[in-house]
Amino acid sequence: MAIHYKDLGLVNTKVVFQMAMEGGYAVPAYNFNNMEQLQAVIAGCVETDSPVILQVSRGARKYANQTMLRYMAMGAVQMMKEMGADIPIAVHLDHGDGYEVCVDCIENGFSSVMIDGSHLSYEENVALTRKVVDYARQFDVSVEGELGVLAGIEEDVEAEESTYTHPEEVEDFTKRTDVDSLAISIGTSHGAFKFKVKPGEEPPPLRFDILEEVEKRLPGFAIVLHGASSVVPEYIEMINRYGGNMEGAVGVSEDQLRRAARSAVCKVNIDSDCRLAITAAVRKVFAEQPEVFDPRKYLGPGRDELTKLVRHKNEVVLGSAGHGREIMAAINS
Ligand code: G3H
Ligand code: 13P
Ligand code: ZN
Asked: Is the pTM of this model over 0.70?
């Protein structure tokens, strides 16, 4: 049976992005696949009074089960309220690759979907995105489109090289598709190995010139940054110290992300950093306490580390902290 996101206590991204744009900050979009990740993201966002987008990839849907996800989202809203908070929570399909998966998510209570036609030809991308928007509009669900291809692994699609967004396409694309937000490619990539740099070398800067050109052409329009994990060096160091091997892992510096968050970038996607936080903490427990076999004894510290990371991102990197309640007040007014 179909369910609408409002019945789950969720919000779409419309007012959230408007206020992020006006306030010069970005809303975090954290991927989750299991209970501990969800609890940590909610706890970190409640503690910092931050709006949050909970992202579900196609892989996550397969892993966690569609029905389970629906109740997890409902549980997340309830938990947030029981913690005495009132923050906007959106549930978003990450990298939807076709019309059917978007429809399925909308019918299962998602408040936002991404239709990623970035690997298609321009005209095919326009047509598919428009079709999803036409369906989503009937239910007041937000839609994110994408122009330009990020290097790295996006679900099952692996791109060796990134193709930067062509700013001259963005007006036509947003006008013809009527999307609510647009993901662009300015040099970030998915995963924990974003740049090939020699030890001690700085990764190349993001292409802020492209972002600025897009902003000029689409004033006030919400831009999305994928592949935006910092690949926190402390976690890489911890993982390597406690038996892992992630030599050469590198991400986007916090300074670059702060600069992006102050611009038209209203949504910043973070998955890899969340994985690293949990893995680092779990590895530490396994290395230091080999007798532990109760999952709560290692997933608990993993959850705590992720909560800490979420607080840090919201407060120090994205600037979304302190804006949750005011957005909810605007939505309810
Ligand atoms: O864009 C990719 C996200 O990090 C999701 O990754 O497909 O392994 O869940 P996943
Ligand atoms: P990271 O791999 O940098 O965390 O990016 C995640 C992402 O873009 C999900 O859509
Ligand atoms: Zn992505």
From this structure: yes
